[in-house]
Automatic annotation (TrEMBL):
Keyword Transcription attached: yes
Gene3D superfamilies to which the protein is assigned, alphabetical: TATA-Binding Protein
Domain of life, per lineage: Eukaryota
Keyword Iron-sulfur among UniProt keywords: no
Keywords: DNA-binding, Transcription
Molecular-function GO term, any one: DNA binding
PANTHER family on file: TATA-BOX BINDING PROTEIN (PTHR10126)
GO biological process, one term: DNA-templated transcription initiation
Protein name (database record): TATA-box-binding protein
UniProt family annotation: Belongs to the TBP family.
Pfam families associated with the record: TBP
Amino acid sequence: MSSNSHSYTIDNIVSLWKIDGSIKLDIDNSKRKKKFNAQVIRKSGVFLVFASGKVIATGFKDVTKAGATLQEIYPDNKVSFVKVVNITAHSFVPYTFNIRELIDSYDDTTYEPEIYPAVYIKLNGLTLIYYSTGSIIITGAKELPQIDDALAQFSRRTVQMGI
């Protein structure tokens, strides 16, 4: 994928699904300290299947792949998409800039190198995590245009601070 300012790659999409009809769950809590009322199914990604028919899918880079895999697991039931919960992507900044100036210029930016070696930037409900190597992790998106907008805004902020 790419935005006007940076290309990016989708790493994970967490999505919510609904399975109609009755489903039989095989929940094994013998190895857990606390009870967990969902069946964990690992197939191309991970599904948490609840008795209510709600399913959380993670570990997929494409929502349609999650739906197709879930339909394979439950071929006798109707599987329907509900919503995207979170999209995580990564990108790379091909230029250097003054990190201290970024931190001092914007209130939505935090940096605590003693705790974690990255700058956290909150932009329109998304979190961008910038490393000094130029890598950026984007999380919190529900739609791809949100990632495009956040990267474009990040670029506008940082390109003027170039070293």
